[in-house]
Design goal:
- This protein is of the alpha+beta class.
- The strands form two sheets. It has a two-stranded antiparallel ribbon with strand order 1-2. The chain has a two-stranded antiparallel ribbon with strand order 3-4.
- The relative contact order is 0.15.
Length: 58
């Protein structure tokens, strides 16, 4: 299953563009789903977590 199919079929959230979209919103539940790299995941309290951030460059 492709990542775009997973977002659509499993999460109910369509990626705007499969090449550059980092996430999508399920319009029914208003849930936001983001794609992250595996090296951005951390285990905290036995659960995998990712910390999204936006770097500000002056």
């Amino acid at each position: 299953m492709s990542i775009s199919d997973f977002f659509t079929d499993t999460l109910g959230a369509n990626l705007a563009n499969t090449r550059w979209s980092w996430g999508a919103v399920n319009p029914v539940t208003n849930e936001v789903f983001l794609r992250v790299w595996a090296d951005e995941l951390r285990t905290v309290g036995g659960q995998e977590q990712a910390l999204p951030y936006h770097a500000v460059v002056d």
